[in-house]
Amino acid sequence: MVNETSPEPRAEGRPESRPGAREEAAPGRIVLLTTSHRVAPGLLSWPAWQALRTADAVLCADGAHPQLPYLREAGIAVAEASPTAQELVEACAGGRTVVVVATGEGEPALTDGLARLAGSGRVAMPELELLPASYDLPGARLLDLVQVMDRIRAECPWSSRQTHEGLAKYGIEEAYELVEAIEAGDRAELREELGDVLLQVVFHSRIAEEDPDAPFSVDDVAGGIVAKLIHRHPHVFGDEEAETPEDVKEHWLRTKAEEKQRTSVTEGVPLGQPGLALAAKLASRTRTAGLEVPLPEGEGIGYELLALAVRAEAAGVDPEAALRAAARAYRDAIRAAEGLSA
Q1: Could you read off the pLDDT tens digit of each residue along the chain, which spans 342 residues?
Q2: What is the largest CA-CA distance in the chain?
Q3: Cα separation of the two ends of the chain
Q4: Residue 75 and residue 9: Cα distance in Å, rounded?
Q5: What top-level class would CATH report for the domain 138-216?
Q6: Other beta carbons less than 10 A from residue 85's beta carbon
Q7: Can you list the positions of beta strands (E) in the chain?
Q8: CA 249 to CA 234: how far, in whole Å?
Q9: Third-level CATH fold of 22-132
Q10: Coil vs helix vs strand at 293
Q11: Nearest to 247, CA basis, from 264, 232, 225
């Protein structure tokens, strides 16, 4: 490998290194510099800049690496080279430090080659260091999800034709599957179902960007919920105090009432939700508002279920969850009667 940053060849007549010389005593150092594509190029850690500025050579196999323009602007000479493990070890001879700016794949061929050399025992290996130059912040993979969704929306024949209305049923299904995973206590399933619910949010947001009259993006969605959470938690982001969950609920209801300016406690209660949940929600709104509203009198199962749902809500029981638990027990009993396992 020959490039402007490779070690100079031995000049003719230069004396051979004697035992104990620097080349044998200090085999050098290899720094594999990794960066995250989720962080803007050039925003590197201080240890990374130190390693780059003090290195004897900086190499990168990808001439289009997004970091290169910023490194060169900072005065870092970067050679476009793809050395073998042996060549890289030789480049470190004499105690030299070589920094390799890793490509997106992380240079697996190079690291595997270095591992084989080290395992052979025939080569005095340089010091090897993996130096993350930029780190993903919590939530960074959400950026990947947005990018993947953009591409799918543009290139997938099915996804490119979807609408809010066409996807609505999937949102309901995924929400129910999430609840089922929670109630089953299945952690692996819970993780997967949360991803499916998150996909619905990102998918709908991507579709909304194309609306000709009132477009919005996933950033608008996230920005809206951030603003809402901050406003409804003055005990966290403001000067108010809350020492109990009841205090927090009071803050939440008060700020929500100020935001919505509703004339009735029934506003905002979706009538399309399951009946028991609907009855319990109306009972909760009524109780929270301090209203004394007698149950409507009537005959039939509907009124009996309404009374049960209101009673459950007053006792702090989710009637939908309670009925699902009972239904699962009923299902198990049916399977037992059939001679099947639960």
Answers
A1: 334 444 443 333 333 444 444 445 568 999 999 998 888 888 999 999 999 999 999 999 999 999 999 999 999 999 998 999 999 999 998 899 999 999 877 788 898 999 998 888 888 899 999 999 988 888 989 999 999 999 999 999 999 999 999 999 999 999 999 999 999 999 999 999 999 999 999 999 999 999 999 999 999 999 999 999 998 888 899 888 888 988 888 878 777 777 777 778 898 888 888 899 999 999 998 988 888 999 998 999 999 999 999 999 999 999 999 999 999 999 999 999 998 876
A2: 111
A3: 66
A4: 25
A5: mainly alpha
A6: 20
A7: 29-34, 57-60, 79-80, 97-101, 127-132
A8: 12
A9: Cobalt-precorrin-4 Transmethylase; domain 1 (3.40.1010)
A10: coil
A11: 232
- The amino acid occupying position 273 is Q
Spatial strand order of the sheet with 57-60 comes to 79-80, 57-60, 97-101, 29-34, 127-132
**What does the H/E/C string look like for 50-99?**
HHHHHCCEEEECCCCCCCHHHHHHCCCCCEECCCCHHHHHHHCCCCCEEE
Domain ranges of the chain: 22-132, 138-216, 262-342
Q: Give the tokens for residue 148.
A: 């993947």
Residue 225: what residue type? Answer: I
Q: What are phi and psi of 288, to 5 degrees?
A: -65, -35
Measure the CA angle with vertex 129, ends 125 and 132; round to 5°.
160
